[in-house]
Automatic annotation (TrEMBL):
PANTHER family: NUCLEASE HARBI1-LIKE PROTEIN (PTHR22930:SF269), PTHR22930. This is DDE Tnp4 domain-containing protein. Residues 128-293 form the DDE Tnp4 domain. It is found in: Nucleus. Keywords: Hydrolase, Metal-binding, Nuclease, Nucleus. GO terms for cellular component: nucleus. It comes from Parnassius mnemosyne (clouded apollo). It comes from the Eukaryota.
Length: 371
């Protein structure tokens, strides 16, 4: 097994990079970090499977989505042993990469994120989205994981910055919980309510003297609140303030759509519903998110993981010119599904905040159309 892996590494065609979705340097770095945790002792009956092979099996499973039988033929390891290796290695990767996702804890860190959104949507400090991760019916679960799409799922709630990196992820809510309830029950919402995030104090938008809070950008699946902006429902006349606001919000929050698209197409383990228990699905999902951030920040793996053309390209007028390649690679039966958009009546202060943003973007569009 180890010889086969070394032959793959020595291939000049770059097959190893396709095999693991990363550079050899990053593979060796991760191996060095997880080896003390995943290494097993040889016995008198048999030699232990090397840590290098254990890591390669796990990364190949995440990258390809191959079932245990297929991995058995590739690595000559029994499916039963593979079913134990993958959770063990995923747990080790979660431990060594846990700092890759770190929600800002100071006003200065939030302002750094806001700088990335400022041109498209000032005062935005992240784009938020949620997805159902579908799985086959868990044993003895009743209707706990049964969702509105008549499938079984857990829910992933994530916050993304303008560089297509995850800065918060909450995984494991039962699919039966309403999509609005997922956010209300999340750690992120608790921190917002207790002012534990140290979000900067409200500030007026350019050209205004009315303070507006820093906000997360969501879609129709989320409730409109003081800290979450969502589009106006329905269709609106071309050039109307509501349509202009919706367009501005959509242009700014497309980063989260691209981030999820990259995650799902690069880690093909999401290509179809999971045949695993919810706890293992949560573990695998978090491992993929941590690896996503790690590879996005790596100089050697970035061009392998997200080569040019992967992400949507927009011109100076924020018009989509080249759709990202991930859009053509999405599977119709992917394990990752959208949350349900449910109309909700927002509080009056949340509506006033959205109206202030609407006035800003409408005035900006009027200025840009001046001769």
């Amino acid at each position: 097994m180890e010889n086969q892996l070394m032959e793959l590494v020595a291939e000049p065609s770059g097959e190893f990079k396709k095999f693991t979705r990363m550079s050899l340097e990053d593979f060796e770095y991760l191996l060095n970090k997880v080896s003390p945790v995943i290494m097993k002792q040889d016995t008198q009956l048999r030699e232990a499977i090397p840590a290098r092979v254990r890591l390669a099996v796990t990364l190949r499973f995440l990258a390809s989505g191959d079932n245990y039988e297929s991995l058995h033929f590739l690595f000559k390891i029994s499916p039963q042993i593979i079913s134990k290796i993958i959770p063990e290695v995923c747990l080790a990767l979660n431990q060594v990469l846990k700092e890759e996702i770190k929600i800002p804890s100071t006003a200065e860190e939030w302002l750094d994120i806001e700088n990335g959104f400022a041109r498209k949507y000032p005062r935005a400090i992240g784009s938020i989205d949620g997805k159902h991760i579908t799985l086959e019916c868990p044993s003895n679960s009743g209707s706990e994981y049964y969702n509105y799409k008549k499938t079984f799922s857990i829910v992933l709630l994530a916050l993304v910055d303008s560089s297509y990196n995850f800065i918060f992820a909450d995984i494991g809510s039962q699919g039966r919980i309403s999509d609005g309830g997922v956010f209300r029950n999340s750690l992120l919402w608790q921190k917002i309510c207790t002012n534990a995030l140290n979000i900067p104090e409200p500030n007026p938008l350019p050209g205004s003297n009315v303070d507006v809070p820093y906000v997360f950008l969501g879609d129709g699946a989320f409730a409109l609140t003081d800290h979450v902006m969502k589009p106006y429902p329905g269709n609106h006349e071309y050039g109307s303030p509501k349509r202009i606001f919706n367009q501005a919000l959509s242009r700014a929050r497309v980063v989260v759509e691209n981030t999820f698209g990259i995650l799902v197409t690069k880690f093909r383990v999401f290509k179809k519903p999971f045949q695993l228990c919810p706890e293992k699905v949560s573990l695998i999902t978090m491992t993929c998110i941590l690896l996503h951030n790690y590879l996005r920040k790596s100089n050697t793996s970035l061009p392998i993981y997200t080569p040019p053309g992967t992400i949507d390209i927009y011109d100076n007028n924020d018009i989509l010119t080249h759709p990202g390649t991930w859009r053509q690679e999405l599977e119709s039966n992917s394990a990752v599904r959208d949350l349900l958009h449910v109309p909700r009546r927002p509080a009056s202060n949340a509506r006033e905040i959205r109206e202030e943003f609407t006035n800003y973007f409408f005035a900006l569009s009027q200025q840009q159309n001046l001769p």
